[in-house]
Amino acid sequence: MVVKTGNLTLEIPVQITSYRLFIDQCLEFAIENSSLGNDFKRTAKFKLAIMELLTNAMKHCKVVSYIDIQCYPDKVVVKKIDSGQRFTFKDVDTDQHYDFPIDPFTEPSKINARLGNNYTLFINIKTKNQIEFLEPPVIDYLSIDEVPENFGLMIIKQCCDTFHYNYNKVLSQNIFEVIFKL
Amino acid sequence: MNFTKEISGDITIIKLSLVEASLNESDEFKAFIYDNCADVSPKMVIDLNNVLYMDSSFIGALVAGLKKVLSKKGEIALANISNDVMALFEMTRLDKVFKIYDNTEEAIKSLK
Description:
The complex is a heterodimer.
Chain A: E1 2-4, E2 7-12, H1 19-33, H2 40-61, E3 65-71, E4 75-82, E5 89-91, E6 97-98, E7 109-116, E8 119-127, E9 130-133, H3 152-159, E10 162-168, E11 173-181
Antiparallel strand pairs in A: 1-2, 2-3, 3-4, 4-11, 5-6, 5-7, 7-8, 8-9, 9-10, 10-11
Helix pairs in contact in A: 1-2, 2-3
Chain B: E1 3-8, E2 11-16, E3 20-21, H1 23-35, E4 43-47, E5 53-54, H2 56-71, E6 75-79, H3 83-91, E7 99-101, H4 104-111
Parallel strand pairs in B: 2-4, 3-5, 4-6, 6-7
Antiparallel strand pairs in B: 1-2
Helix pairs in contact in B: 1-2
């Protein structure tokens, strides 16, 4: 664990035995260093987002990964950082496969991205190394066959104000960045 | 045991002893549901009374279980969901997919 003023970095174990301990540590830090704790609903969403970032790390990374929390007067920034497999997706409409860095990148564009079976999310491709997850539309499933079995990124997006994936080519790092505005 | 079952008539009541229902248990739980789907038209009540934390992997296991049960013309009802877990169901719109009841008695009654 690394603690600086307004900054906390925690290594995510490959196998988490207690989510609660990890989540409480993150929450305690955020409450001590920001006004996040003033809003009960906000803290509940913060906890949910941390839980999903931890699950994401255990499910997909298979390498050492970190949670980094930075507190500012106007926001709390949570990053999940790892050097595992890059995030990839397909365009629902064109079936085009995207990997990072996105090449060729021409201009920012919004697409409906397929992330798995029945699992889609709208994203904004901002640069060749950055996408933003957008607010999912309200869905009423018409049949059980339409219901996805993965929800992690969708949940994170709904818990926070902005949610980005950044690929750092130099360090070969995946960075999921979750921002809670205060 | 993370999950136990009781039989009440033609209904299987599954109780989770977990406080955290997560990726660590999701595969095991999915297999548990599948193992209890041998009957024609299986009816299950899943009691989530102890669960304070649930992640998307466990929700995915619940959805997979529901798909399996519905494919056999059965039914699943969920009971005793905490407020935080309910928020997760609402976010994922699964509150419109699952039958959700305040307690196991109501859930059992709905399947009779």
